[in-house]
Amino acid sequence: MRTVFAFPAGRRADTVALLTHPRDGLYISIEDEGNGTLYVDWDPDELAVLEEAVGHRPGWAVQIDISGRIDGTAEVHDLLAVLLADGGVAFDDYTTHAWTLPEIQNGTAVDGLRFFDFHTYHARKLANDR
Asked: Residue 118's domain is classified under what CATH number?
C-alpha cells in the first residue's frame, strides 16, 4: 500500500463534501492530529517542510492509501486536482517535498522524482541494492 497525504487550503467540511464519490483502488480517510493519527510516522524534516509550505502545522489531512493492485497514478492525480484546486499541498512516500497542484500537474521533478513517482524510486533502490 502506498500513501499520499493532502492538506487542502479550504475548510474541512468543504473537503469532506468533495469526497462523496467512491474511487476504485483508493482508500480515503480524514486524519486528525488531535486523536494522534495524523503525524505518527512523519520525520521531523517532513513536518518542517509541511509547516514552512503551509505556514502552520495543519490539524487534519486527507490520507489516500493506494492499493498495490493498481498503478494509481492517474487516480491520485485526478483526486488531488479536486482537493487542491483552491490551494494546499500534498506529500507522497518518495520525497520530502510539499507538492503544489501546479507542480504535480506539470510533472515537476525534485531530486529526479516527480510526484508519486514510485517507478523511478523503486528502480533507483533496486540499482543501489546491486
From this structure: 3.30.70
